[in-house]
């Protein structure tokens, strides 16, 4: 007698739960990123974010939280999702090639001391890796969010959050959790600075 197959939905949740259970180090890193970002953004730095497909949606989610808010009301911060600049993106990829789509925008919009959050579930997306190289060359702090590593993006980035799941959907779901953790860390640091009377 064969055992019944695990329902598809239950299997999906099992993979997600396993990835979340293994994410303690990534949660600590995301919290640290948020706290660091609070100081950078209040000091006038800008954040840019980029990714392809589902990772583009995650990048836009992050920038929306920063320009808008995560939970509590606070001042808006400068944050741009590079894939959302459709005219610039398509002009650049047409004139300079796919790999330059994010990198050229990053070079235009950032200055030393800014932050780039770059997402790639494979860690090998050529346009994201090229953006990471351009960030490092321009003095922009580069944080990567990827699937299993090491990979081309983690090798270039200043720091990385790695979700060791073989499933793209699971990686993206955990990335969203970690982006919210980053935002919570940022808000906590802002609250602490307010209590301490810091600007």
TrEMBL record:
InterPro entries: GmhA/DiaA (IPR035461), SIS_dom (IPR001347), SIS_dom_sf (IPR046348), SIS_GmhA/DiaA_subfam (IPR050099). GO terms for molecular function: carbohydrate derivative binding; isomerase activity. GO terms for biological process: carbohydrate derivative metabolic process. Residues 37-192 form the SIS domain. Keywords: Isomerase. This is D-sedoheptulose 7-phosphate isomerase. It comes from Klenkia brasiliensis. The lineage of its organism: Bacteria, Bacillati, Actinomycetota, Actinomycetes, Geodermatophilales.
């Amino acid at each position: 007698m064969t055992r019944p197959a695990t329902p598809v939905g239950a299997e999906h949740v099992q993979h997600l739960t396993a990835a979340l259970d293994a994410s303690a180090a990534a949660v600590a890193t995301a919290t640290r990123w948020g706290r660091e970002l609070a100081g950078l953004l209040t000091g006038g730095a800008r954040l840019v974010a980029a990714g392809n497909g589902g990772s583009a949606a995650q990048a836009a989610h992050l920038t929306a939280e920063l320009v808008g808010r995560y939970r509590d009301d606070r001042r808006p911060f400068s944050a741009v999702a590079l894939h959302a600049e459709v005219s610039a993106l398509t002009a650049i990829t047409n004139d300079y090639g796919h790999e330059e789509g994010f990198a050229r925008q990053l070079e235009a919009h950032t200055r030393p001391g800014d932050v780039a959050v770059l997402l790639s579930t494979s860690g090998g997306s050529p346009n994201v890796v090229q953006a990471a190289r351009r960030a490092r060359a321009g003095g922009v702090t580069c944080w990567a969010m990827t699937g299993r590593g090491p990979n081309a993006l983690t090798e270039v980035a200043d720091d990385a959050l790695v979700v060791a799941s073989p499933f793209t959907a699971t990686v993206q779901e955990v990335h969203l959790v970690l982006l919210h953790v980053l935002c919570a860390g940022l808000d906590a640091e802002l609250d602490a600075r307010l209590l301490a009377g810091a600007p």
